[in-house]
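Model it.
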Amino acid sequence: MPKLSNDLSLTKNTRLNSLGPSKIRAFDEKASQIPGIIKLTIGEPDLNTPDHVKDAAIADIKANDSHYAPQAGKPELLEAISNYLDRSLDVKYDPKTEICVTVGATGALNDVFMSILNPGDKILVPTPVWALYFQLIKLTGAIPVQIDTSKDDFILTPEHLETVLQNEGKGAKAIILTDPSNPTGRVYPAATLKALAEVITKYHLFSVTDEIYGELVYDNNVHHSLSQYIPERNILISGLSKAYAMTGWRLGYIAAPADIMKTIQKVNAFLVTSVTDNVQAAAIEALNNGQADPLEARKIYEDRLEFMKTGLEKLGFEMSTPQGAFYIFAKIPDTFGTDDEAFANELATKAKVGVTPGRYFGKGGQGYVRMSYASSTEQLQEALKRIAKFVENI
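Modeled.
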């Protein structure tokens, strides 16, 4: 086995030295070693990719579609994404100049951060939030400024945003907003987004919206987007992973004004050349002929949410009502104070239920745990029984 030469050991990218591995993934891997554990840790749908979507990929392979695709994406897929955004949000993006296909929403985030951020730039990040944002931002040399939203039911208010922009976030270049939220499941009302858009415009910011859970909203809530109010400033990121149970397919996309999209497409081409042909064929089928698929998934998740929320509240757990995605962000029992990590470790070892400590999602997460209900109903029923027994014992 080769060993790195001593004279090369200190020549790595030094920005990586301050970045640890994902705590969410590390905790999940640790919990996975416990025999018989039920994991509610990772946002991984238990549903299968729809058959017609899989068939489209198989047909594409059999048709020998095995050459480089256009770097921004196949024209048919760009058109399908444009039509979907028009259909679902009433926003208009030119498929030829304003959309780019990426390797998952994570790839999209990399493309966007590398396109708009320079070393030393500030970008505002409302928290709790998916923690990978912090690492990807730091890789560019930029500075994530966390905005704790826990005192406002995990919704960033325009007043809070303006206060931050006048203080620790002064001079910020951009803001990223996840809606619906991971980990809290909160959904931004249209009026709040409109007011945030006014502040964003006043302070000349880019806005980046991660809308990967946009199809999964419940209880008569409606998903809105900053692209409906400030399309000239907003960069919209989404994909098919969650709503179509396609996490392993790695298909994401970006929609943005043409001037910044030129840079985004350039970065994407540098990083991946192009997205896999048969994956794009599957995405074309999903977007053009699979409008009912997310509706079926949404009904399943909504039933699971109601079951988990009702059961947890009976056990004394408190939460801001989840309205989208497939997570519950619950305050831990008072017995543990705010030590969500200790609670999650004990729940895993003693009750054999894996949940994710809230502190891993940034400021405002301490004292909470995230539970994913993207598991089978049978597993959720058993998990709730184990949680109830654990809580009774403490």
